[in-house]
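Model it.
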Amino acid sequence: MTQYKDDRKRPHLRLVVNNPELRGSRPATGEDASIPFEVLIAKRHELRADFYKGIAPQHVKAYERIERHLERRGWLYGLDPQHGRLMVIPAATACPKVLEHGGSPQDELLLFVADDPTGLGLCLCLEMILPFWSDDDAVMEEALIYAPIYPYGSLFLEENRNDGYLDLIYRLSFPLYPPAPTERLLEKLFAVARYELRETLIGLDEFPEA
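Modeled.
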């Protein structure tokens, strides 16, 4: 299976909790330590200047709209300017069902703004490493093959650079027209992710090594 090789394109995956105590004894080879969510919360205001430094005005506008949306909902979130300008949210906050299907309070949703494939607009992206793993890569590949196909989000496998196991990752992307997200679009983004994550995790419960 082809893996991503360009770290500049996928730096955000380094942040997600790896739960090494659960994933067997394969030696850790990663170069980057995960950043505790509590640290991102505590230093959010301190990190904000670096988070917004040097990014295009349309990205600034989009991120500011997202911050206002999260604050209006009363959700805790962190800002990470070091791994791809990520907004980090506890997965159980946006999708409570995660805790019913093998997830933990440490699992995170990563929210970020990216250029769309045309280079002419922006995309609002949400990702989560799913709380499903096996030390047998064939099991992970089978889970991907038989996982549901959704109209909005998608699943893919990527090798975790910290422990060498395959991660099953959910990604949801919405184009932004106009460039800044509206309240209605953000509500829809989280509603879609909540539904698709729930259905995915229910399906993964049927796998014997889930």
